[in-house]
Design brief:
Length: 228
C-alpha cells in the first residue's frame, strides 16, 4: 500500500473526514518529514522511513499519550538519531512512554526514567537523579609522569597519595604509555566529584599530571546495581 493511501485509510478508521482529515494529514506528514515518500509503497521504504510512517499513523488522531516499544531497534546510526530527534520533538506536547533496554537511548531521549524489575519500580527520576541515587562508582583515569624534571617518584607513593583522598574508594593500576608515564584508575563515590581534589593534591606534591579523564556513570551501571 502506498504511504498516502495508508495514512488516508488510518484517518478514516479514526473517524476523521473532510477538512479536518486533510489538515491533520498535512500536519502529521510535515511533523514526521515523510512528504517525499508519500507516493512510495511502504514495503519499499527503509526501516527509518517505516518507523516514521508508523509514528505518523499513530499521531493522526492527536492522542494524549503515545506508547513506543523499542522504536529504534534495527536502525542504522543515522536513522537512530533521526527517530530519536523526532520522538523528542513529539514529546514536547505529548506524553510518550518509551519501553527500551537500550539504556543510552533512554538517557539521550527521556526526561524521566523508571526501571522495573520483577514487576516492581526500583528506580524513578531523571537520568541524572538516578545516576546520583544509584550510588554507582565514578571512575577517573589518570596519567602521571614519574620521571619528569629529574624526579624519581614511585608508583607506590602516588598510589598511596590518591588512596588517601576523601571519597576515594579504590586505586588501581591502569594502562600507561611507558615505564615513566604510568596510569591509574581511581574509583570514587559517584555522588562526589574528586577531580578538584586530585588536581590540588598533584599540584601540592608536584606530581606531573599529564591526563585526567572521567568515565561518566551511565544508566547501564545504575540498572545493573538496582536490579542485581
Amino acid at each position: 500500500m502506498m504511504v498516502l493511501d495508508y495514512l488516508g485509510f488510518v484517518a478514516e478508521l479514526r473517524g476523521l473526514a473532510g477538512e479536518e482529515a486533510r489538515r491533520k494529514l498535512n500536519d502529521t506528514i510535515e511533523r514526521c518529514a515523510i512528504g517525499e515518500v508519500l507516493g512510495k509503497d511502504i514495503g519499499d521504504l527503509s526501516k527509518g522511513y517505516r518507523r516514521r510512517v508508523a509514528l505518523a499513523q499513530s499521531l493522526l488522531h492527536e492522542p494524549e499519550c503515545l506508547i513506543l516499544d523499542e522504536p529504534t531497534e534495527g536502525l542504522d546510526p543515522n536513522q537512530i538519531v533521526e527517530i530519536r530527534e523526532l520522538i523528542k520533538g513529539i514529546g514536547r506536547d505529548k506524553t510518550i512512554l518509551l519501553s527500551s533496554h537500550i539504556l543510552p537511548e533512554v538517557q539521550a531521549t527521556c526526561s524521566r526514567v523508571m526501571i522495573i524489575a520483577k514487576g516492581k519500580i526500583v528506580a524513578d527520576g531523571t537520568s541524572e537523579e538516578l545516576r546520583q541515587q544509584g550510588g554507582a562508582e565514578a571512575r577517573l583515569y589518570l596519567k602521571i609522569d614519574l620521571g619528569s624534571n629529574g624526579s624519581s617518584l614511585s608508583i607506590e607513593t602516588v598510589r598511596a597519595s590518591l588512596a588517601s583522598l576523601p571519597m576515594v574508594k579504590k586505586v588501581l593500576d591502569s594502562e600507561g604509555e611507558s615505564e615513566r608515564i604510568v596510569g591509574f584508575e581511581v574509583r570514587a563515590d559517584g555522588k562526589y566529584d574528586v577531580r578538584r581534589d586530585i588536581f590540588q593534591m598533584a599540584a601540592t606534591k608536584g606530581y606531573p599530571l599529564l591526563e585526567m579523564r572521567r568515565e561518566v556513570v551511565s544508566l547501564e551501571d545504575v540498572f545493573r546495581k538496582v536490579t542485581a
